[in-house]
Amino acid sequence: IAAMMDLIRADLALLNVHHDLFFSERTLHARQEGNGSEIDKMLDVLRARDLVYEGTLPPPKGQVPEDWEDREQTLFRASNYGDDIDRPLKKSDGSYTYFAADVAYMLSKYERGFKEMIFILGADHGGYVKRLEAVGRAISGGDAKVIVRLCQLVKLFRGGEPVRMSKRSGDFVTLRDVVEEVGCDPVRFMMLYRKNDAPLDFDFKKVTEQSKDNPVFYVQYGHARCRSVLRQAAEDMPDIETSSSALAQSDFSLLTDSGEREIAARLAAWPRLVESAAEAHEPHRVAFYLHELASALHSHWNKGKDL
What we know:
The chain is built from twelve helices and eight strands. It has helices spanning 2-14, 26-29, 38-48, 98-111, 129-140, 175-182, 184-192, 215-236, 244-248, 258-268, 270-279, 284-306, and strands spanning 52-55, 73-76, 87-90, 116-122, 145-151, 154-158, 161-162, 200-203.
């Protein structure tokens, strides 16, 4: 496990992603000497607050399975907090359900002082949203906010053709493979260049081609053109001051062209854009904004050449 965690940390570092904490689910099951496990303590806390009880659940909707047994289990009162049904924490044989560890983990987070908890789940875990939100309301008395974000899968392509992978044959592409082939910035930008609940088609060829059809290159080229302007200004007008503080004192009434004014207006929207993206937990807004800003710059650049 330690070796695998080292690999994961190294792969994330290649993408310039660094986690403050990795939490092992195994610590929730580990029994402390004389104290029981974190899951045991969670059940004691919930029992003291009448959030769990011993009872039975109705059979699954539709045709009842032949092996269905109406057994008593330890249930969490999820339906009191917005879920469809109550959820089992402990099976009739005494073993814990997967959900019990989820509840213990959320209780741990809340007791560590976190009032806003964001869970990132795969698209096939949509059924978990209501129960996690219910746990958050129950353990915090409505004080904590639980936000669940569902993310779609990433599909890899090369020149429009799907990259075939197979776990069984050991033929698959890792995150490290992708970053090492196309670079950190294109991977980060393309991962953000769509909403979290939208599927992402990642084409190795497209994200490395130098054309306006590649949003990564389009934005990077806009940055390169800005640097070129500053560099040429310093060469042609050595006495000009181009620091941020000096440019802030410029006479903006000189900007009379519609293209210039559009770019200035877009730039002025940047602080609010960052704030709204953070509040909505939608970082794709930043990527969209950069692409739109680069588009405005390139259009104005081309018009300037023509004129």
